[in-house]
Design brief:
about 475 residues; alpha/beta; Alkaline Phosphatase, subunit A; 9-stranded mixed beta sheet; two-stranded antiparallel sheet; globular
Length: about 475
């Protein structure tokens, strides 16, 4: 690089070596620093992912969010509506006004549910025959039948369910959790994302990004094939102590580079990621090694069945991760909007429930028998529900105005159904929970007051709920 006269007057010998020849002089500087003892690593700043104090006693330490990508039908799973049978083939009652669905259809006839319904457990929760294994765990579920959102399409709905906004740029829920609570294991990512199926979730990394927060809080995705984490195995020709020296020197160079670029949080995240990757080489292979699990555990998650193996594998890894202190794990099912049933909902949901039901029940059973369910909050749901009116004759359109989610473990009052939708399941009408309320409730169960979890961005205090949510404390066990 060229150095003008003014700059040359203020250059030290070390700066000269670092800046000349496009930084090649740094190699000589490394030897000089090593000789005079200056290579000793500086006192490092506290990790932004170090475990932090809660605002109030926490019910849950970790979250496993089971995301049904595409929007499952609440009317055929957890929210039975006898009126659908009575009104089958007829227009929606005039009292609803003229309803135009998300895809622009109107005056569509009511589509009855073909499901058989039963009450399950001592709690008597209604669950359809599409979910026989989940039904066995009815007494562990807190079913919220009155959720609603603003997103009418998949992109906006998934983005809002993850970040609180239909539009890109805000931190994901997992990022808020790791920002507020940190991690109990610095040798593994604090926030992990897994996708099941051949597709990719709409919006991609936007759904687990850190938005305007430092990039260190973003989610880490696991690979679908090969090693769960990319580059987890060190090169065979590089010894561990050699790699350690290289990383220490690289860290010093990166920190010097970042010192004059404090607004670029990607640099800090990169420095942290190099160190985390080094630690993960020793710890991650064991954490995701499912061969350590018994044959009974494999069967519990459905790893012996082609239909249930993909999601079962992810959920078993999720259990192993939260067991080791990972704070937030998100497991997408049907990545690529596979739950989207605009037509032939019978075939679509039969297949999707078949692949999801047993692994989810297996996760709940496994967590419970290991004593982990009390400290692990399991959340189930999609970006919205489905309409009571038909689409294309035998399908259901997107329904953002009323749908079902459920929570289990993590201090929830289980064996209960909360909130209601109207007689045909179109609108949430009682104890309505917007996505902001769902997020606030999750944080509450984790010991965090959503009103106090604030990140200042451009001089403006920001919260996950954008000042609109409330924690639905009725769902928390006393």
């Amino acid at each position: 690089m060229s150095i003008n006269k003014k700059n040359r007057e203020h250059l030290s010998r070390r700066q000269m070596l670092l800046q000349s020849g496009s930084g090649f002089g740094a190699m000589a500087l490394a030897g000089m620093l090593n000789q005079d003892g200056a290579m000793a690593a500086p006192a490092s700043a506290p990790s932004p992912l170090a475990a932090k104090m809660t605002h109030h006693p926490a019910k849950a330490k970790s979250v496993i969010f089971l995301f049904m990508d595409g929007g499952p039908s609440h009317l055929d799973t957890f929210d039975p509506k006898p009126a659908l049978e009575k009104l089958a083939g007829k227009p929606i009652p005039e009292s609803f006004g003229r309803v135009i669905t998300a895809m622009g259809e109107y005056d569509s006839p009511i589509l009855p549910s073909a499901r058989k319904w039963k009450q399950h457990g001592e709690s008597g929760l209604w669950i359809s025959d599409w979910l026989p294994h989940t039904a066995e765990m009815a007494d562990e579920l807190a079913v919220i039948r009155s959720c609603w959102t603003n997103g009418i399409n998949h992109s906006g709905g998934i983005c809002q369910m993850n970040t609180g906004s239909q539009f890109a740029g805000r931190p994901s829920l997992g990022s808020w959790v790791t920002y507020g609570l940190g991690s109990e294991n610095e040798n593994l990512p604090a926030y992990v994302v897994m996708q099941e199926g051949k597709g990719r979730v709409i919006n991609g990394a936007r759904n687990w990004g850190a938005g305007f927060m430092p990039a260190v809080y973003q989610g880490t995705t696991m690979q679908k094939t090969g090693p769960p984490f990319a580059n987890i195995h060190p090169p065979k020709h590089v010894a561990s102590d050699q790699q350690r020296q290289e990383l220490d020197f690289l860290s010093q160079l990166n920190q010097r580079h970042a010192a004059t670029r404090q607004d670029n949080t990607d640099l800090e995240a990169r420095i942290r990621s190099f160190e985390l990757a080094f630690q993960m080489q020793s710890h991650a292979p064991e954490a995701v090694d499912l061969s350590q699990e018994s044959a009974d555990t494999h069967r519990l998650y459905g790893l012996d069945d082609e239909a249930t193996e993909p999601y079962g594998r992810n959920l078993l890894m999720a259990r192993r991760l939260v067991e080791r202190g990972v704070r937030f794990v998100q497991c997408y099912h049907g990545a690529g909007s596979k739950w989207d049933a605009h037509d032939n909902i019978e075939a679509n949901h039969t297949k999707m429930c078949r692949g999801m039901d047993l692994p989810v029940a297996g996760l709940l059973k496994d967590l419970k028998q290991r004593g982990l369910l009390e400290q692990t909050l399991v959340v189930w749901g999609g970006e919205f529900g489905r309409t009571p009116m038909s689409e294309k004759g035998d399908g259901r359109d997107h329904n953002p105005t009323g749908f079902t989610m459920w929570m289990a473990g993590g201090g929830v009052r289980s064996g209960q159904a909360y909130g209601t939708t109207d007689e045909v399941g179109l609108h949430a009408v009682e104890d309505r929970l917007h996505v902001h309320d769902v997020h606030s409730t999750i944080l509450h169960l984790m010991g965090v007051d959503h009103r106090k979890l604030v990140y200042v961005h451009k001089g403006r205090p920001e919260r996950i709920d954008q000042n609109e949510g409330r924690a639905y404390t009725e769902i928390a066990a006393s």
